[in-house]
Amino acid sequence: MSAIDGLGVPHGLASDSDPARRRAALRDLLSAPEPLVLPGVSDALGARLTDRAGFAACYASGAGIANAQFGVADVGLVSLGEVVEQVERITDATGRPVIVDGDTGHGGPLSVMRTVHLLERAGAAGIQLEDQQMPKRCGHFDGHQLVDAGEMVAKIHAARSARSGQGAEALVILARTDARGVYGLDEALRRAHLYLDAGADGLFVEAPQGVEELERIGREFRGVPLVANIVEGGKTVPLTVAELSGLGFSIVLYANFLMRAMAFAGQQALRYLAEHGETNGFTDRILPWAQRQELFALPGLTALDSAYAEVIAGAEG
What we know:
Blueprint: H1 3-7, H2 19-31, E1 36-41, H3 44-52, E2 58-60, H4 62-70, H5 80-92, E3 98-101, H6 109-121, E4 126-130, H7 149-162, E5 172-177, H8 180-183, H9 185-197, E6 202-205, H10 211-220, E7 227-229, H11 241-246, E8 251-254, H12 257-276, H13 289-295, H14 298-316
Parallel strand pairs: 1-2, 1-8, 2-3, 3-4, 4-5, 5-6, 7-8
GO molecular function, one term: oxo-acid-lyase activity
InterPro entries: ICL/PEPM, Pyrv/PenolPyrv_kinase-like_dom, Pyrv_kinase-like_dom_sf
Pfam family, one: PEP_mutase
């Protein structure tokens, strides 16, 4: 082994040759006794930060991508191609599993097959599909319109047929219903049973209201991977991870906590600059220079660059 081989290659410069490993890792996480805490990310920086914080996986947030990358609300304005491009950047920045918000699948069953194919090729370990009509809306908004449950069942079958890998190495499919805000919890539970029977690997009953509704969902689907989506200021009561786990939820999603925290910090920083005309007094509230470079693998890249310079010099000598 050469000195160069021993240095390793940072994420972003080498392809992960085994995407099945990420899918299998995600399934292991979903079957573990402790809940999977899933921070949402909207870019490669977010993926790096969740890695650094020690989270086992992350979630490519459709709302986060719409807000942070395109400056628009989460009302179905971002195309599949734009999502795929961003997911490629996110998965390239981390070796850990990424679950991707696939929204409605961007169309009918055939479109769902294309969505699964492209997102899987982009490195997704799991995908979430929902039963809204296009254009979709954030689950904690009002005014949703849903497809018939039968159409969503067909989409789940389509997603299963399009995914690669078998058993533990198959793409994880999470089925989401937004029926609670349109028809009530009974219909949401009815649909969730249908989606589970269609072959979904886990369920996401969006925007339940009150502890009693969370308890009922947990009882109804005990033992099934269940998503609780905590949206600060949203419709679901913000219980702790431990409380939600006790109610039967094995995935606790914080889809846009990081993006909103970064936006708030950015507002504070820019307000300071506008008011003071300098940044020296704000340096205790920004990432230090050395930590920034380490986060983006500059020491490793520098070592690699030097090693390759030695190779060039040796070949020429």
